[in-house]
Specification:
It contains no helices and six strands. With about 70 residues, it is mainly β. It has a domain of about 40 residues. The chain has a two-stranded antiparallel sheet. Strands 3-4 form a two-stranded antiparallel sheet. Strands 5-6 form a two-stranded antiparallel sheet. The chain is elongated, with a radius of gyration of 23 Å.
Length: about 70
């Protein structure tokens, strides 16, 4: 887990992040919270098209009105 402390510099509050050459996504919440989420590498980058595809298991089901019949 990444932890850090805040410090005052003139009239500002500074938070230093450890240098890990990490890119962060900044998310501002309505309550004033600022979240720094580490950006991860795209797990699908460099993979073949449809490599993670799973066959649809629901094709054999028929729908009558709002119910699914097995």
């Amino acid at each position: 887990m990444l932890t850090t402390k805040s410090r005052r510099q003139r009239s500002s509050v500074i938070i230093d992040l450890p240098t890990e050459n990490q890119v962060y996504i900044v998310v501002y919440s309505e309550d004033g919270t600022i979240n720094l989420i580490p950006k991860i590498k795209d797990p699908f980058e460099g993979k073949e098209k449809a490599e993670y595809y799973e066959k649809d298991q629901w094709q054999a089901l028929s729908c009558k009105r709002k119910e699914i019949v097995f």
